[in-house]
Amino acid sequence: MALKNINPTKTAAWSALTNHFNNVQNINIKDLYKDTDRQKDFSIQFDDLLVDFSKNRITKETINLLVDLAKDIDLKDAIEKQFTGETINVTEGRAVLHTALRSTSEEPVLIDGKDIKPKIQSTLRKIRSFSNKVISGKWKGYTGKSITDVVNIGIGGSDLGPDMVVESLQFYKNQLNTHFVSNVDGDHVSEVIKKLDPETTLFVIVSKTFTTQETISNAETIKNWFLKSATIFDIPKHFVAVSTNLEAVDSFGIDKKNVFPMWNWVGGRFSLWSAVGLSISLSVGFDNYKALLEGAEEMDIHFRNENFENNIPVILALLSVWYNNFYNAETEAVLPYSQYLKKLPDYLQQAIMESNGKGVDRNGDKIEYQTGTIVWGSTGTNMQHAFMQLVHQGTKLIPADFIGYKESLYGLEDHHKKLMANYYGQMDALAFGKTKEEVHLELKFSGDEDKINQLLPFKVFEGNRPSNAILFDKLTPKSLGKLIALYEHKIYTQGILWNIYSYDQFGVELGKELANKLLKNQ
Ligand code: F6P
């Protein structure tokens, strides 16, 4: 059975939310905080993760009504349909099963009557055995030397996920140097290969279709560079592929044994849990890669089973709808307080904007309400010295996710205390601001009254700017898996609420077509 087709704005919950919004739109987080239980009432603890959403312009009634919206839209039914492999990617005629890739349960997942779990398990075994050989030095290049460098050649979902995870898990990395080539800009590939030795480099070509212009151009350029020092018979020792297109991989010259499968039921931007994550496993070892999958599975189970009121991805999705559709906020910031997560905003831009940047509903009709949010961000504290001025005092409402860790990895206590003081300080400043009276008191001794009055308006912080605190104990492969899966489920929940298809991406095609036409006419 297909996904239901319900216009959210026609539901009873939406009308109730509209009335409620008219009553509460001017509420102030500072006033709401007079309730001393607020933080407790608006937080969800899930193992090593605490999500505190108390600094939002919401009351208990707002949450109840948003949860009613999720019920009116039958989110539960949509979640079950995704997990059980129904063809929810209707426009491409596919199931969407990144959750099956990390599932350790016995529950079979059927596609065309066949359980896909055995294929997933055998691919994981292949990833493990290959990673072990390369990392241990048993896998030799064409001159008998071990591999020192791994280059992931891919773009979009075949690049951003692995690149972000490898960067985020740098602390857990082994001796292999990992590089990523994505852009068709020849300067990108040139800069990467200039540092490499063909005798000791392994190239992982990742392309679900194996037709993507950027990836194939980069792979061909790299192959030609490699063949300046080696022969075509040496290719199997240095090139492996992750793809669904076995024919194209074969004509590229890659040995069948060195092909890692991909499947149509895994979307590119949700694929780091499949063999697309091979460079992750090579970089941090299979056990850490498996722990990443375990963390994601924990979030899957939480998302599938928890009541909406205590369901982290659902609550974050609903809050985002509250700001996007009622307060007309257009963007959201993702602000990790960990330098390791500096690539997370880029990764989430594809995951969120390629999924929910849609203007047509599941009926094929033009949508009259707002859908996908614009996502952007950077790491704290760097961004405090860059764009936070606008978030604090600008004219736009920008809800923000602050991602933090109780512990640092190297244990420089003094640094971590400062980092976390900034993490909390920023959220407090956004929520509570600084009044005229407070500014006045501060300036009292620093000048004459005229000067103070002149400066006053510039120094006031309105506050009432929303944020979510997403706080983990520690950055580990497992907690990272949980975090990524959290956002994946938020994306799906929002797509369901907005009555759109989140898993196709036709919007990326026209530009590609026109570029190809231009190339042909040259
Ligand atoms: O940009 C569109 C897109 O299809 C993404 O969804 C995908 O992740 C990327 O291109 C790469 O595709 P492929 O893995 O087939 O090379």
From TrEMBL:
> What family does the Swiss-Prot or TrEMBL record give for this protein?
Belongs to the GPI family.
Q: Which GO terms describe its cellular component?
A: cytosol
- Taxonomy, superkingdom: Bacteria
PROSITE patterns found in the cross-reference section: P_GLUCOSE_ISOMERASE_1, P_GLUCOSE_ISOMERASE_2, P_GLUCOSE_ISOMERASE_3
Protein name (Swiss-Prot/TrEMBL): Glucose-6-phosphate isomerase
Q: Do you know which Pfam families this protein is assigned to? A: PGI
The record lists the catalysed reaction(s) as: alpha-D-glucose 6-phosphate = beta-D-fructose 6-phosphate
HAMAP family membership = G6P_isomerase
For this protein, the Enzyme Commission number is 5.3.1.9
Functionally, this protein is described as follows: Catalyzes the reversible isomerization of glucose-6-phosphate to fructose-6-phosphate.
